[in-house]
Amino acid sequence: MNSILLDVGFGHFLVLAAVLFAIGVAGVLLRRNALIVMMSIEIMLNAANITIVTFARMHHDLNGLSFALIVIAVAAAEVAVGLAILVAVFRGRRHVDLDRLNTLKY
Amino acid sequence: MRFLIVLALLLSFGGVAMAEEIPPKRDTANSATDDTGAALVAKAPKDRDRTEGKGGGLALLFWACALGAVGGSIFVITRRNMIAAVMGMVGTFIAVAAIYMLLYAHFLAVIQMLVYAGAIMVLFVFVIMVLNRPEDEPWALVGIPGKVLAGLAMLYLTVRLGQTVWSVRPGAEQLAAPAPVTVTLGFEIHKDEAGNLSRVQETESYGWGSTGAMGKSLFHEYLFPFEAISILLLAAVVGAIAVARPWKDEDSPDDLNDDVPTEVVS
Asked: Using CA atoms, how far apart are residues B7 and B45, in angstroms rounded to an integer?
């Protein structure tokens, strides 16, 4: 127990990323507000980024860092488009409740 | 809640102070073989007794960051007040930036602070201010069985992922400063005294994860993805403006035949 607490290695970072990803999945599955769901998606992207950086550090490789940078840029683009879609949806319907946005289902 | 934030700050400062007290381990005999992860994994068990108790400050720093990240993300998915959720998300992002620092990805940590804790957070706060509506019923699953099922599924996912990745043995040696990387820049034409021309491959050495190394990597090997990202961002900005632009008839937005926006730039 003491060694797990003190000897922090790459496994700790990977487990932290897994826990963050699980929390993000829980947020996407449980919450109905579309904004909170987008925040949970951001948390999941961050968890994936931690994994990428940890493996890059583990293999002493610079390419992983470039991948992580590209993931950050794609996340920024995704947030811009997603929030614009939310604003457009809210303008029409006056809510962003995902359980009530089911018109495309039928 | 404020007490928790102050406690986390104190813990992280204490971790920084303890980490600075540790003399940097210079293991020159082993640093040449440290380059691959396989060597690290193979070396870790016999290093563990040697480095016992030396990584206390780094470990404290890691646990503080992990606590901040997990606590912030749990804060995000449990709050009804969305501004509070965004503040939890900012805490998560700052903790993740600190974790990048612990992994010696310094440039990425700065980018994380700028892009996530700066730009994306501001975007979220703006949109929340625009859509200022309290939630009626925040949780999608009502009833005890659904909650229990979702909790069990989340626990199962976490445990299985943890089991899979825990096979990487921990070792304090792994968090020591990484060896510098050699970046290949290209060829340079050299001319010796006899007038013969020769091509010499030009390389430079940078610290792993530093701005110099990242810049050389991005602008040499990853130049095309870098430019593609700029086109992607341009398309995203144009698309966001096109989607969020107000329409002519505000009261009946379901009328999708109305293609003419109000502000037509003439």
From this structure: 34
To the nearest whole angstrom, how far is the Cα of A13 from the nearest Cα of chain B? 8
**Is B157–A76 a contact, with Cβ atoms under 8 angstroms apart?**
no
Q: At B247, is the secondary structure helix, strand, or coil?
A: strand
Residue A67: what residue type? F
Q: Touching check for B229 and chain A: CB below 8 Å?
A: yes
Greatest CA separation for chain B: 87
Contact B69 A16 (CB under 8 A): yes
Q: Which two tokens stand for residue B148?
A: 């229990």
Put simply, whether B13 touches A (Cβ < 8 Å) is: no
Query: For B118-165, what is each residue's pLDDT tens digit?
Result: 889 999 998 888 887 666 555 555 677 877 887 888 788 778 877 776
Which of chain A's residues have a Cβ under 8 Å away from the Cβ of B138? 31-33, 36
Extract the tokens encoding B94.
Answer: 């700052």
CA distances (Å), B155 to each of A4, A26, A92, in order?
20, 10, 38
Q: Tell me which chain B residue has its CA closest to the CA of residue A33.
A: B138
C-beta separation of A37 from B82 below 8 A = no
CA–CA separation, B111 and B9 (whole Å): 22
- Residues A38-96: pLDDT tens digits? 999 999 999 999 999 999 988 888 888 999 999 999 999 999 999 999 988 888 888 88
Contact A32 B135 (CB under 8 A): yes
Cα B210 from chain centre: 15
DSSP conformation letters of B159-210: HHHHHHHTTS---GGGGSPPPPEEEEEEEEEEE-TT--EEEEEEEEEE-TTS
Q: What are phi and psi of A101, to 5 degrees?
A: -95, 65
Whether residue B250 is predicted with pLDDT greater than 70 in this model: the reply is no
Report chain A residues whose CB lies below 8 A from the CB of B45.
none
DSSP code for A104: G
Give the model confidence (pLDDT) of B229-245 as tens digits: 999 999 999 999 998 88
Greater confidence (A38 vs B28) lies with: A38
B214 inside 8 A of chain A by CB: yes
Q: Is B127 on the interface with A (CB under 8 A)?
A: yes
Q: How far is B6 from chain A (nearest CA, A)?
A: 22
